[in-house]
Amino acid sequence: MRIAFFDSGMGGLSVLHHAMKILPQEEFIFYADEDNVPYGTKSPKEVLACVDAAFRFLIAQKVGAIVVACNTATSVAVKIMREKYSLPIIGMEPALKVALDTFPNRKVLVTATAITITGEKIRRLIKNLHAENLAELKALSQLVEFAERQEFNSAAVEKYLRGELATYDWKKFSSLVLGCTHFNYFKDTLRKILPPHVKILDGNAGTINELIRRTNLSPSLITNHQSLTTYYSGRRVTDSAELTRLEKFLQRLDKMEAIE
Ligand code: DGL
User: 109 partner at 20 to 30 Å CA-CA among 22, 85, 100, 175?
Assistant: First the structure.
């Protein structure tokens, strides 16, 4: 099946990276809206217009399913896109349920972009999980810009994260949830800063499981992935410097994968 993974930028690769391992026989399209990244500091109306344009492009590519590999776009636009199109549309959900199921009654810090943190969708998730006293929200929007320029583990990244995470009483927390797909690139620095008992959780496995459930695809044992076409805001990426840049993101994700 031809499956599209869509994000404002390179964060979506972290979800696709997981899919390529589990569903290597499928034909993937990666759509990064590089002309408009970051979404997280835009207004919901602006993000909706970007998502709308991306969907029109992807539908024209005759994809069988779209994974919105972006928490921000999911939060703003997934419901509207589902009303508009009948193909399976799989969104991201911060892994708060996984955190609470694994560590009942322990606090969880959900990190995301500013739009996701202030959005209705995350409030509803917290309410449905009765987690009002357990979930704390923290915007780490600047990480998106660090990721886009492949500044993954510089002193500036560490300083930013140490500053933003300095005030939490970690004894009370079981985990930190990555509620933005761009944040997966920073797991090593986060691991260095957080006490060892605080686990780092993301929603990637949950999203791919949902994709499998909605499309009846079968996970495969073949490990060599063959088919990936990338578009930046609708332009096909063929330039060798850009393909090398993409490869560097994937190599970074290979390294981050084992860090919890
Ligand atoms: N990667 C996206 C997310 O999961 C959006 C980041 C951005 O463009 O601000 O939220």
Answer: 22
